[in-house]
Every structure is written in C-alpha cells, then in structure tokens.
Amino acid sequence: MNDKTIVTHNGNFHADDVFSIAALKIIFPSFTLIRTRDNAIINDADVVIDVGGQYDPETDRFDHHQRGGAGARENGIPFSSFGLVWKKYGLAICDDNQDVANAVDAGLVSTIDAIDCGHVEGVATGISLSQTISMFNPTWEEESNFDAAFDQAVEFAHTLLLRFVASAQGGLNAKKIVAQAIKQADDPRLIVLERYTPWKKTVHSLSEEALYVVYPSHSGKWIVQTVPAELGSFEDRKPLPAPWAGLSDSEFQAVTGIDDAMFCHNGLFIAGAESFESVMSLATMALEY
Predict the structure, then answer these.
(1) Which domain of life is it from (predicted)?
(2) C-alpha distances in Å from residue 113, one per residue of 70, 117, 141, 162
(3) What is the 3-state secondary structure (H, E, C) of the chain?
C-alpha cells in the first residue's frame, strides 16, 4: 500500500496545522508530507490541511479559511484545521473512547481552534500553546528553513498530543475509581483509596460529607489528607488536630500514641504513617477530635 500524501501550506505555521499533522501521524504512521500552496499538488493530495479552501471530511479536506468558515461547536468556538481533523479522527486516536476524545477537545483542541480563529473570549492569558508552537518558526535573523522548523514543531506536538490523550484517559479512570471508593466507604467522612489516584475533583463533585482521604504514597507509606473546602482552596472542611501541627517521628508518635506515625504538616492538611492500620487510626482520631 502506498503512503498517503498529506499537504499543508508552506511558510509560516501555526498550532492548528502543526497539531493536525501531529494527530495524523497517529492515524497514518507513514506518509509523505508536502508543504505548498500549489493548487495542482493540493488537488492530487490524499489529505489536505489548512489550505485549499475546502472542508470535506469524506475526501479528507480540512481547511477553514473559506468564506463562511467550517462551522463551530455548540459553545460557539469555531473549528480550525485541528478541530476539523479531531472531529473526524479524534475518536480513533482515543481508542474509540468518546469521553476521552471529548476531554481532549475541551482541554486542548478547542483552545487552539479558538486562538487560531480569533475567538479569544475565555482563553487564559499568559503564553499559550499556540504561541509556543509559533516560536518554532525561524526568527528574522535566522535562515528561513520553515520546513525543517515545521518538522521540529510537529514532533513536539505529536509527543504532547499523546500525553494529553493519556492524561485525559487517566483522569476518567481516576474518576471511576474514586466514585467507587466514595460509594463503598464505611464512613462517608473518610474515603479510602487502595492506590494513589487523583481525587479532589471527584470528591468535591460527589461527596459533601467527605472530610479526609486515605491513600498510599509512591514510597509505600500511607497518607491521610484533608478535603479542601473548595477546589484550589487552602482552607479545609476539617483540619487535622491542632496539637499535631509540625510534629514528626518520636514527637508525633508520643502525641498520637502510634508507634509508626511519621509526620503532620504544620498546615494541618496532611499526615502520614508507615502502615495502613496506623494511618486509619490517625484518621479516626482526627474525625473524633
């Protein structure tokens, strides 16, 4: 089977065409890339990105510069070439998991589309991923080898896109695990996780009663952590006992009566012990304090 020929425009590039090619590298591991505005080459290509003045997913034409654009999402963010490619191929890239594909679109694709199309309302300030991609373009003082710079940008974007998909998948898996732990909790105030799993968003969305979460650390020790009053807040629904603040090792063990108690942060939001049984004892003491 012959490799597909994928065409995008030459010269200065942006995040939408770079990430489009990065996404297609996942779908088509081997292809010939041509960067040009030559209409004859564009017409003969198998896939056309961000050039050609046509959007037709059936024939793999993904431009959005034509009069009237190429449509918009329900939230009003218009599609750039990356969004159009993702609309067709995103589900396959995410192993047919629509929730993951939607999460990647919401967190990455739609932001790049918004910036490329000038739909900047609600886009965070500061250096953006789109600006980062633009910095791969040669400066006015450098040799204008745009094709080589484009290849470098695609490799960067390809790696980042794969990590974004993995992160989205991990987030959804974590939500299921934490939701199940909340459902199975013997005491709704204390959520126990058998392995460390990102938990704050799910606990806040599903449990108004949870005060503490217990989980193993990466080193194999056990942690009890407070549930923040609000996401991102430094205030807790219930701090750990005040007499524990800043104690560690023998001092902490003397106050708690637990032989393998390790520490309690001065901020009273996290404490640890060597064993699961001991950290559960700490959690019980905190609940009763």
Answers:
(1) Bacteria
(2) 11, 6, 29, 18
(3) CCCEEEEECCCCCCHHHHHHHHHHHHHCCCEEEEECCCHHHHHHCCEEECCCCCEEHHHCEECCCCCCECEECCCCCECCHHHHHHHHHHHHHCCCCHHHHHHHHHHHHHHHHHHHCCCCCCCCCCCCHHHHHHCCCCCCCCCCCHHHHHHHHHHHHHHHHHHHHHHHHHHHHHHHHHHHHHHHCCECCEEECCCCCCCHHHHHHHCCCCCEEEEECCCCCEEEEECECCCCCCCECCCCCHHHCCCEHHHHHHHHCCCCEEEECCCCCEEEECCHHHHHHHHHHHHHC
**End-to-end distance of the chain based on CA atoms, in angstroms?**
70
Buried b (16+ CB within 10 A) or exposed e, 178-192: bbebbeeeeeebbbb
pLDDT tens figures, 101-142:
999 999 899 999 998 888 876 565 555 788 889 889 998 888
Per-residue pLDDT of 238-263, as tens digits, reads 999 999 999 999 999 999 999 999 99
Q: What is the mean pLDDT of residues 75-98?
A: 96
From CA 14, how far away is CA 92, in angstroms rounded?
Answer: 24
Domain spans of the chain, in order of start: 4-171, 185-288
| Amino acid, single-letter form, for residue 183 | K
